[in-house]
Amino acid sequence: MDLATTAVNRPRDAYYWRLLATALSFAVFGLGGLCLRLLVFPLLACMPGGRERHRQRARQTIGWLFWHFIRFMKGAGVLTYQVIGAERLGRPGQLIIANHPSLIDVVFLIGLVRQANCVVKHSLFDNPFTRGPVGEAQYIGNDGSMDMLEEAVDVLRQGQPLIIFPEGTRTPPGQVPAFHRGAAAIALRGANIITPVTIKVSPTTLTKNEPWYRIPSRRVHFTLTVGADIDPQAFATQGPAPQASRKLNDYLHQYYLKELATDERSTTRPAP
């Protein structure tokens, strides 16, 4: 798997072509979701195996398609990317925590960790283009309820890797991420290990309340860096559950403030 690409810095960097390619990417994503719902998943449902086997097939299919969608956008000139430490993702009971600067962060992570569960916006279950994939993969809808927290804890205890964005939504450019304590509470109750992933996007794109056609003047570069593992038990012993959750959440918040403050100009981009 090629996890490194080279950024291009020509003036405006084929702006109108990238605008067209971005529109095409959105169309491909939407049509792909419909095809999965109407064609692919009904065929997978005819294959032998129970509910768990069907879930595994659905997640593997979605992850494979998501990664090739990223490759499609790279080939079309929309973006470049670098992933550091991907081999440490996908372990049983691993809670993968990431910041959320862009609309396609989840596409990157599910493409890299194809058997992971994921906490996603609850509205995706009502969207005609996405409700098929998120339903068949048995992802967890983030409705803010205690039932959602319990479900997330259960899937970790079952040994599934789980992807979660503690911010709950994309962070507007120029603002620091604000983490909700739900992710910390889930980690303390169910995770074998916590692994942070820092996502940097330069220049910013597909941020909160930003229309798809407002693309930057040069090609976007994504950098995903897998950080050192965090043992949730180191925080679980630091007092009652609410206090431990608060301390873990504060630790994660400070970790991301430090990582995101790193000067992106020092990031190396090896040639393919």
From TrEMBL:
Domain Phospholipid/glycerol acyltransferase: 94-202
Single GO MF descriptor: acyltransferase activity
Transmembrane segments: 15-40, 61-84
Claim: Membrane is one of the keywords in the record: yes
Pfam families the UniProt entry points to: Acyltransferase
Pathway the protein acts in: Lipid metabolism
Ranges in coiled-coil conformation: none
Protein name: 1-acyl-sn-glycerol-3-phosphate acyltransferase
Organism the protein comes from: Pseudomonas taiwanensis
